[in-house]
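Morning!

This is the sequence you dropped in the shared folder:
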Amino acid sequence: MKSEPSLEDRFQGCFLGLAIGDALGYPTEFLSLSEIQKRYGIDGIEDLPGNPALHSDDTQMSMSVATALIQAGHAGVEHWMDVLVREFVKWLRSPENDRAPGNTSIKGSMHLEAGIPWTESGIVQSKGCGAIMRVAPIGLYFHGDPTELRTAARASALSTHAHPTALVAAEITAFCVAWAVGGVPPSEFCERTRSLQSPSVTSWDPVLGESWKRAGYSSPREYLAAGWSQLLSELDKISQSLAQDPSDVCEILGGGWGSDEALACALACVIEFPEDYSAAIKRGANTSGDSDSIASIAGAISGAFLGTEAIQKDWRKRIENRRALVALSRKLYLAHQK
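The structure's back. Tokens below.
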């Protein structure tokens, strides 16, 4: 009988899982499925390219979020965001920030660098997936504290992406990681998400400021309800996608460029292959949409659910920044216990 992975192993599985999914999808981003198949064969990309296999900005920003959580400890979201602002500005000016970073993440980070408060720096028009592809460490760190998880996920998104759908999708992506690290089967995630709608739209921590006013809404509740409407509209398509099983999940669920579509695509991959990390990220990487983000989010959830040993050893050895990722997962695990 297979033993359940330990909590620390799930933390490591999440970190390696998101980076490896990112690296598998990175070369196929901006390619159509037919172009991917022409380049890699009828089954598409199936192995990590290169040694080391390079990841993208998705992993870089996830590492920034994890670093900020470790440094800030349990001093509260305001202190943590002060640290995260510094980490995002550091990422912005890093010579390694050359992995096709998202325009909104760049623009929001430039606002932070210019001294604009993080509650006002986010782009209200953008619900891009940059808001959710970096949120997995929050789901790990606050997996036992739904209130802190919700506020931290929203705050992290708000610094660059202030569209209501971005905030809600970041919140739910973090919850999915928290459920996965707690051993909840992915088949339950969509129903659990729907059960969160009511407490979510009625929760607004004052520390988050008044982004709802900048976005043109009359109240935080109206703002969040708009985000929930878009997100649930996408998640409702997952069952259709699983039933029809198209060659490309983006065919039904959209390209994943928006945070709602990216989460729906990633969840479809994990729900289809709940016990197979490799199959889940291959499904995400072989898409005509935002392949690296879809595969990275799917990899984070699958890795957190299945643990490190579910990820093939060769991939774990070859992923860029392997030692740093393992060290961060260990430090985050220890920090969350304090």
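Headline: The chain is about 60% helix and 0% strand.

More detail when I'm at my desk.
O.
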